[in-house]
Amino acid sequence: MRLLLRRAAFYLFTAWAAITINFFLPRMLKGDPVSAYLQKNQGRISPEAADALRTLFGLDSDKSLAQQYADYWVLLFSGDLGRSFSHGLAPVTEVIGVALPWTVGLVGIATVLSFLLGTTLGTLVGWFRGGRGDVIVPVATFFSAVPYFWMGLIAIAVFATGLGWFPASHAYSKGTSPSLSLEFIGDVVVHGTLPALTVVLASLGGWVLGMRNMMITVLDEDYVTVAQAKGLSRRRVVFAYAARNAVLPQLSSFALALGFIVGGTLVMELVFSYPGVGKLLLDATTAKDYPLMQGLFLVITLTVLVANLLADVAYAVLDPRTRQGES
């Protein structure tokens, strides 16, 4: 409990710092979001409407910076992240809410599958080191070294254009209305299979290599030798003793990977024309849509912090030495 409270206090402070930076950063830039929006709509917005926009975005010159900061926190707690200039002044929460499920659903599942598959293969390759399974490491590393956009284009050329097994782009067929029907879900799965497989192949090598190296290190420890001398089954020695300790460094990397799921895989979304948060952030940056950029930055930052907090908890559960060191 003491460890959990310390970690929670640290991450709460980090979240406060991130939110504060998110508030001050646009105000440190030249101009402001409303001025940029007015320049694109010269002659179509009255001065009264411009003043209303500044009040809406907390940039009212009649209020002090401290009052604007306090109002910003009030809006955050009410779930108001502002309005997106590039989406017809739609609420930022709605714009992000439309793109977020596509990124989390595709990149999230692909990341989890890559971690589980890579960790399992790394465990077996490390245990049976020197055997035929070692060929998995250079093969997986090769796919990780290939530039992702090149891998994606090759996958489209072979499996979409050549064989016709999967669609080449988009999240679902054109003309289809999103719904919870089995037909639509199947269409989404078919469209997401090819980009998901490329994400798994691109990230598999790191998980395999990291777990294999840690397994080789852990297998020289005394507690593994004692477990084998006690006559425990091979499966129990591998997974309950060796792999349980070897996977600990992997958890930190996995937490970072989970946190950055929300950021999306921008290259993947561009190659496959997939609607996601990564492409949304690129479009917001291109359009200088500061409210949307702020909202995306805030969501990504908080997601990374939550993922790391969960990794710290899992680390403490798996490794009692962590709890003893904090006590």
UniProtKB/TrEMBL annotation:
<keyword id="KW-1133">Transmembrane helix</keyword>
<feature type="transmembrane region" description="Helical">
    <location>
        <begin position="254"/>
        <end position="275"/>
    </location>
</feature>
<dbReference type="InterPro" id="IPR035906">
    <property type="entry name" value="MetI-like_sf"/>
</dbReference>
<dbReference type="Pfam" id="PF00528">
    <property type="entry name" value="BPD_transp_1"/>
</dbReference>
<dbReference type="InterPro" id="IPR000515">
    <property type="entry name" value="MetI-like"/>
</dbReference>
<protein>
    <submittedName>
        <fullName>Peptide/nickel transport system permease protein</fullName>
    </submittedName>
</protein>
<feature type="transmembrane region" description="Helical">
    <location>
        <begin position="188"/>
        <end position="209"/>
    </location>
</feature>
<feature type="domain" description="ABC transmembrane type-1">
    <location>
        <begin position="100"/>
        <end position="311"/>
    </location>
</feature>
<dbReference type="GO" id="GO:0055085">
    <property type="term" value="P:transmembrane transport"/>
</dbReference>
<feature type="transmembrane region" description="Helical">
    <location>
        <begin position="295"/>
        <end position="318"/>
    </location>
</feature>
<feature type="transmembrane region" description="Helical">
    <location>
        <begin position="135"/>
        <end position="168"/>
    </location>
</feature>
<dbReference type="GO" id="GO:0005886">
    <property type="term" value="C:plasma membrane"/>
</dbReference>
<feature type="transmembrane region" description="Helical">
    <location>
        <begin position="9"/>
        <end position="29"/>
    </location>
</feature>
<feature type="transmembrane region" description="Helical">
    <location>
        <begin position="102"/>
        <end position="128"/>
    </location>
</feature>
<keyword id="KW-0472">Membrane</keyword>
<keyword id="KW-0812">Transmembrane</keyword>
<keyword id="KW-0813">Transport</keyword>
<comment type="similarity">
    <text>Belongs to the binding-protein-dependent transport system permease family.</text>
</comment>
